[in-house]
Amino acid sequence: MASLRKRGKYYYIRFVKMIDGVNNEKSKSLGITKKDEAKEACQLLEEMEERGEINPFSDSFDPQKILEEQSYKNEPVPVHTVREAADYFYRLKSHLSDKTIRNDSKNRSSKRGAYERAVEHFISLNDIADLPVKHVGLYHFEKVIFKPNIKSATRHFYYRQLRVFWNTLRDREIVTENYFKTLKKDLPGQKIKHAS
Asked: Do the Cβ atoms of 123 and 101 come closer than 8 Å?
């Protein structure tokens, strides 16, 4: 059971639980000053506790962090076109930019650079920068991955990089289709290099 208390200008949430006949209490600041917002936060946290999603009696319980994560989940991602989806994806992968492979103004890393090379090739070959991302079809990926006269390793490179790009968009519910199970069936096997 949760309740609200105000200390100074901030609202605190207080959880009470009977353990072995003894009332245990845990109070934590919500970091909220408005009563209506505090009531909503209290209700949300209480529901999450009832569903077993949080344990307010653990030492790591941080209601402010939980509320921030919940508001982030509910916030729509402003992605409509393939170009916006690519830029959003690059922002998510920006933590990979420690080691550069080229001296250019974008300061790309080898991993992020690989994603960018594959995604930018995907966009330019299909000429779909302004296409709504939800209109991307299987044939757009096939045009890149099964392009004539490229090596098996190159096909697998495009497949891997574009799969990460597309699955990232799927994880964030920007798109729903999963084309990569179908594409994998048609991929040629990769040659394995043996040490001599």
From this structure: no
